[in-house]
Write a structure and sequence with these properties.
Elements: H1 2-19, H2 40-43, E1 51-58, E2 61-65, E3 72-78, E4 89-104, E5 107-116, E6 126-140, E7 143-156, E8 165-177, E9 180-185
Antiparallel strand pairs: 1-2, 3-4, 4-5, 5-6, 6-7, 7-8, 8-9
Length: about 190
């Protein structure tokens, strides 16, 4: 129980930090985290040097990654309108990061960043950063108590003509068994 409370407190602090506008921690060349792979902090649990050849730029900072699997890049988004429609295909320079950390059996922390940038749809340029904490605890024969807490912040990015910012919060509790899952949340 003490571990759950500590990690929930850490989650709350990280969520508040994600909501604040902070100065980027970069070196003179604009490289963030002293060139360390941001994904490795969660997957390896240590500072692993990233490679300049595997990098992503976002809002004035360059992030280096140790391996290609630690980041995703989207260069084109095909929309349901079709290729012949003016809004059917967006030229993308987008990055997606998703970091999962299994803290204990049943307790998981996930951080994510969706950095969307479109050359021909600048009003849709956004950066979304969030965290969620989820846990499941066995109650009896196949029955589980589950909860999930999530916080995210989305803002306009790059050359977006919008001045946009939206926060998202979720707290959900429920029960899960062989028959299904029932959750309540806000």
């Amino acid at each position: 129980m003490t571990h759950s409370l500590r990690f929930f407190a850490a989650f709350a602090l990280l969520a508040l930090a994600a909501q604040a506008r902070a100065t980027l921690n970069t070196n003179d060349e604009g490289v963030a985290l002293e060139g360390h792979d941001p994904v490795a902090f969660f997957t390896v649990g240590a500072a692993v040097p990233g490679k300049a050849s595997i990098s992503a730029d976002h809002e004035g900072a360059t992030y280096h990654f140790a391996k290609k699997t630690n980041r995703a890049y989207l260069n084109q988004i095909n929309r349901i309108l079709g290729d012949d429609h003016p809004a059917g295909q967006w030229d993308s320079d987008s990055h997606i990061l998703n970091l999962d950390w299994k803290i204990t059996e049943g307790l998981q922390l996930t951080g994510y960043s969706y950095l969307l940038s479109f050359d021909n749809a600048a009003a849709n340029n956004t950066s979304t950063h969030g965290l969620f904490l989820s846990e499941s605890r066995a109650l009896s024969d196949g029955d589980q108590f589950i909860y999930r807490a999530e916080s995210a912040l989305q803002r306009d990015a790059r050359e977006s003509p919008l001045n946009y910012e939206a926060s998202y919060f979720l707290l959900e509790v429920g029960f899960k068994n062989k028959s299904g899952t029932l959750t309540f949340g806000r």
